[in-house]
């Protein structure tokens, strides 16, 4: 409220002051000023999604199928559950299947599929649970040199909806895609020590998770936000060792540990722009700090069955790239050769 205009209209000074304060308050509570907190919350939730996708891809990249029968065929089915110690955590219960064919005593190759059958995303996110597909090839034996290459990719549609602020809330909803891929090459050298197989390894991995930019539905929100592309990608070197062996008859244990370091990485910032044809506001946030140096470890058990198949179960723990989070994955599998 302009005081000079109030005087011209002969509005009493106290009333003019009240009207001016009301106008300022209304402006301060305008939904335009919600762009930054909405983008901030969107960023925190997306960071959890990136951690989850990265961890799941790492698990699939390291999967194998190495039990073969007379027809040189291996089939393995598995289930797992991922969670992390985050405020806005993204959990995932999945089921997978692997097929492999042994071309020779030295070479095997196969396909992998992993479905997110039960996902609990941060409150504003919901996704299509599309399968993650991958391929792998292994050259070598458990003792001596072994080279493994693997790749995995997925494309999921996602809906992001929110309600922000009271008593006049800002609502928004939009659809986008989350695209993920990873490639890994690993070299290991296995040796027998006191009846156990110990295998130091090194690996090089390239991984990327990207959420495509999108426009919110203008029929839902009076102040729709346009979110820009954002994502995380890294080239990572890994060093570690695995060990396995029988501890009692058909029962065996397996364990592994190591460290990883991102030698190159890109973490996009987060942007959101509101526009109604006459006024716009843009919120730009930098990407979060990344944990370049991370540790990981696993512990599990397996049991050889009479028909040449085996069952296995275990847990893997790894430091995640964002939000200083630690992820835990429980898994179980059944493998049989034909």
What's the short story on this structure?
The chain has 3 helices and 17 strands. It has 338 residues and is mainly beta.
CATH topology: Lipocalin
Global geometry: elongated
- What pattern of helices and strands is seen along the backbone? HHHEEEEEEEEEEEEEEEEE
Based on CA atoms alone, the radius of gyration comes out at 26 Å
CATH architecture: Beta Barrel
Helix tally equals 3
CATH class: Mainly Beta
Q: In percent, how much strand structure appears in the residues?
A: over 45%
CATH superfamily: Autotransporter beta-domain
Mean pLDDT: 85
DSSP strand tally: 17
The helix/strand class is mainly beta
Largest sheet, if any? 12 strands, antiparallel, barrel
Q: What is the helical fraction, as a range of percent?
A: 10-25%
List the uncertain runs: 1-32
- Span between termini: 82 Å
């Amino acid at each position: 409220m302009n005081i000079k205009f109030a005087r011209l209209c002969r509005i009493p000074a106290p009333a003019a002051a009240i009207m001016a304060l009301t106008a300022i308050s209304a402006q301060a509570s305008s939904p335009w000023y919600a762009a930054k907190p909405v983008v901030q919350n969107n960023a925190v939730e997306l960071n959890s999604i990136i951690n989850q996708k990265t961890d799941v891809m790492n698990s699939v990249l390291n999967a194998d199928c190495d039990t073969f029968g007379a027809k040189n065929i291996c089939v393995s089915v598995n289930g797992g559950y991922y969670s992390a110690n985050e405020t806005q955590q993204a959990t995932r219960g999945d089921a997978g299947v692997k097929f492999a064919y042994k071309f020779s005593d030295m070479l095997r190759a196969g396909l992998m599929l992993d479905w997110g059958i039960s996902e609990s995303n941060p409150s504003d996110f919901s996704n299509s649970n599309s399968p993650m597909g991958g391929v792998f090839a292994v050259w070598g034996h458990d003792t001596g040199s072994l080279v493994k290459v693997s790749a995995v990719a997925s494309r999921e549609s996602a809906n992001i909806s929110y309600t922000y602020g009271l008593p006049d809330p800002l609502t928004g909803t939009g659809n986008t895609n989350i695209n993920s891929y990873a490639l890994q090459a690993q070299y290991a050298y296995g040796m027998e020590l006191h009846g156990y197989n110990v295998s130091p390894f090194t690996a090089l991995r390239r991984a990327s998770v990207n959420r495509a930019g999108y426009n919110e539905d203008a029929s839902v929100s009076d102040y729709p936000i346009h979110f820009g592309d954002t994502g995380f990608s890294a080239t990572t070197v890994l060093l570690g060792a695995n060990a396995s062996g029988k501890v009692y008859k058909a029962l065996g244990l397996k364990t592994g540990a190591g460290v990883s370091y991102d030698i190159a990485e890109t973490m996009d910032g987060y942007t959101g722009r509101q526009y109604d044809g006459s006024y716009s506001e843009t919120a730009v946030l930098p990407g979060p700090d990344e944990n370049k140096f991370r540790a990981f470890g696993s512990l599990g058990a397996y049991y050889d069955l009479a028909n040449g198949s085996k069952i296995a179960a275990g847990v893997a723990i790894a430091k995640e790239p964002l939000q200083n989070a630690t992820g835990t994955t429980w898994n179980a599998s059944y493998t049989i050769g034909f």
